[in-house]
Amino acid sequence: MSKKTVTTEYTLTLPKLRRPLRLALVSDLHERRADDILERLRQAKPDCIAVTGDTFERFDDEHNRPYHRIELSFFHRLFLAAAFNINYFLIHIVGKRNLPDIQNSYRFLREAAKLAPVWLSLGNHEEKLHEEDLAFLKENRITLLDNADVEAEVKGQHLRVGGLSTAADSAWLARFAAKDGFKLLLCHHPEYFDRLVRDLDIDLTLSGHNHGGQIRVFGRGVLSSHSGLFPKYDKGVFENRLVLSAGCSNTAAIPRLNNPRELVIIDLKPENKTE
User: What DSSP string runs through 149-210?
Assistant: First the structure.
């Protein structure tokens, strides 16, 4: 686990917004300890918290949930295979440290829910949540968005908040985009932005998944498990419509280089302030 953490802050002005909001983006906990991220979250005092997938390590027996994959070149596939094998070797050399533990995620979410409303969507490490996970979310009033959306009001601002899962339901997504008002989408996979989201009337999409590229060179992320080398979307703000977190954990033995774990805070501003 990389010991270094940062709080990255962005300010976005969005036309449909009527009230300023402070939004926290948390992604890719992967059941690892993140007490430092939690402390940063407390200090940031967000109005609402979006958790965009890979919070849990929950797989079904067949690992066959549908996924909108992209075709990678032979060179990309070869490089990724080499990286995964190096990682596998390093795990056995350094020992299996930093193992996932569901209690880490439970604790983080429980404490986060004391600070602000929490919405949670699902990523590729969450093929099938357990009954105890669902009970935990309900008990702590954490809203699960699995190809689903809800209406919310935060500080007088009406929102339509949706969550697009790894097993993406494009029909639901179209219905969500057709609804009125300011629409906020939690979507673990940034590559879905080009393929499924870009042409729809969705005001802001929040993502994770690529861990900032794991290794960053000249401000660019190098690795991605699904988007090949030097992924187009690694971390940051894109087109004022997509915000991508570098993630809150490190699950690989290959260290994160020039790429600290991060909490993202987004100050959303209306074009014309009403207060």
Answer: EEEEEETTEEEEEEEE-SS--HHHHHHHHTSSS-EEEEES-THHIIIIITTS--SEEEE-SS
Neighbouring-strand partners of residue 262: 6
Contact between residue 216 and residue 207 where contact means Cβ atoms under 8 Å apart: no
Q: CA-CA distance, 113 to 143, in Å (whole number)? A: 10
Cα–Cα distance, 178 to 246 (Å, whole number): 30
What CA–CA distance (Å, rounded) separates 30 from 126? 10
Q: Which residue has the tokens 């070149």?
A: 73
- Indicate the angle between helix axes 35-44 and 102-113, nearest 10 degrees: 10
Each residue's pLDDT tens digit, 191-205: 999 999 999 999 999
Q: What residues pair up with 238 in beta bridges, in sequence order?
A: 242
Distance CA 163, CA 146 (A): 6
pLDDT in tens, 49-85: 999 999 999 987 655 555 555 566 666 566 566 555 5
pTM higher than 0.70: yes
Q: Which bin fits 66, alpha (ψ -120 to 50), beta or left (φ > 0)?
A: beta
